[in-house]
Amino acid sequence: MAVKYIFVTGGVVSGLGKGITAASLGRLLKARGYQVTMQKFDPYINIDPGTMNPVQHGEVYVTDDGIETDLDLGHYERFIDENLGRDANVTTGKVYWSVLQKERQGVYGGGTVQVIPHITNEIMDHFYRPEDPDDGKTHIAIIEVGGTIGDIESQPFLEAIRQFQRIVGYENAMLILVSLVPYLRCSAELKTKPTQQAVRSMQGMGLQPDIIVCRTEVELPEDVRAKVALFCNVPKEHVLANMDVPSLYEIPLILEDENLARVTCDILHLPCPEPDLSDWAAMVHALKSASGSVTIALVGKYTQLHDAYLSVVEALKHGGIANHVNVHIKWIESEDVTEESAEALFANVSGILVPGGFGDRGIEGMIVAANYAREHRIPYLGICLGMQVAIISYARNVLGYADANSVEFAPETTHPVIHLMPDQEGVTDIGGTLRLGSWPCVLSSGSLAEKLYSSWPAWCGEQDADTGSMLIRERHRHRYEVNNDYREALTAHGMTLSGISPDGRIVEMMELTEDHPFYIATQAHPEFKSRPNKPHPLFAGFIAAAVKAQ
């Protein structure tokens, strides 16, 4: 058994797509039969992104085992089609927290605790180790370091990589630098100097990139590749181009043409068999040859930064691929939605989606959106908070509870149809304390939810031993739930509570089927498990209904 390590760093500016490059390489290596896993090392001091503002940092991604992580892990899972866990996202905060706990426990024997060796050793201890080191397989860990070369925050991580390469051997640990090669339109020139400076910074830390992936908006000519190779001390064949493309799912195929996997295997002394990329190529072809389009209104609280809903956007695209249409998103700030503005805002949309969120800002607009979708028979998909506002809307407009609300937004309401989960009572720390991770749900026989999951073999759940109904598992991130005191009233007025936790305590899914083409909502976050070549059934069904409603 061998373990090979690929470290991916960024040069010049952030936001170049290190995560997509790393995930694409993971796809290419997995297509060659290798065991691939991925990690993200983030230099910020937060323990995790769970307490960060989505408008600043983007969405919080949640793993099956209930860890709140960076959104890049979503890219990793979508590309390599592997479920990652708690060891896949490591922050400076986690590293220092662990070191300080050890210091308090006397682990360091009274010695002075320093960045080198204590912090760097802790970082190295977090590098991937296979669960079964004697399984006879070659494991490849692709590890992305957040930020940009030269950032003061990332220096301990880069020093740890320098030490680690010497320990495991340069044939077992390599570096990829993803760097910007800007194009000056006024002079029609590609400029390599920023990349040269990034490499010099790396060399000053004792690191030498093995591969340089050049992010560029135009073709990378041979003379430019040669110049980068000469000044950055790498073979010309190791200077690769990663151009801007319409869809990020094309990038693995582009990097395959650039021989990224072959060069990587050569550096790591690995065989490089021909890959099986047929399913991925078929998915990209379906995406690029879509025969129609559909417009979906996304009514959210954090629409200033679209990355706040990254997995939702990607899952909608996956649903579009399954239905051979391009999905156009109409971004609607929930604070702008009122009874008076709704008709204009939702004109020419074929579906309404309300995603997750926290806090009372913009909630009334979401409630209006959920009700507008119900009354006008527009396909509706509610996710987490999107289910809660659908319940509130129904209680107000169908059950007649005018002040129906969640205790999160209106603690004084006389009809708290959404309330705090009992096990959240008294919780004061806001980081990592929500109901997180994968939880089971029993689907009602004959429900729309059951039909949707049953129509996609990759998503069919197991059979519940007690009821014989389908049992599925979805990821969650919430503190509030449907108040069980109102379940009987909701169902008596036509709502189907189509997904319930196995213990019968938590409403996981609701739907309206009478005189409505598609109205379904879930307390879970199904977007986290959707894949481009395995679209989630709720999103595939939602887009199918939206296409039909056009």
List low-confidence stretches. Answer: none
What percent strand? 15-25%
Q: In angstroms, what is the radius of gyration?
A: 25 Å
Oligomer category:
single chain
**Main pleated-sheet profile:** 10 strands, mixed
Query: How confident is the prediction overall: mean pLDDT?
Result: 93
- Mass-distribution shape: globular
Number of helices: 18
List the helices and strands and how they pair.
Blueprint: E1 2-11, H1 18-30, E2 35-42, H2 54-57, E3 61-62, E4 68-69, H3 72-80, E5 89-91, H4 92-104, H5 115-126, E6 138-145, H6 155-168, E7 173-180, E8 183-184, E9 189-190, H7 193-204, E10 211-216, H8 222-232, E11 239-243, H9 251-257, H10 260-267, H11 278-288, E12 292-300, H12 310-322, E13 325-333, H13 342-345, E14 351-354, H14 363-375, E15 380-383, H15 385-397, E16 405-406, E17 416-420, E18 435-443, H16 448-454, E19 462-463, E20 470-478, E21 480-482, H17 487-492, E22 496-500, E23 507-511, E24 519-522, H18 537-549
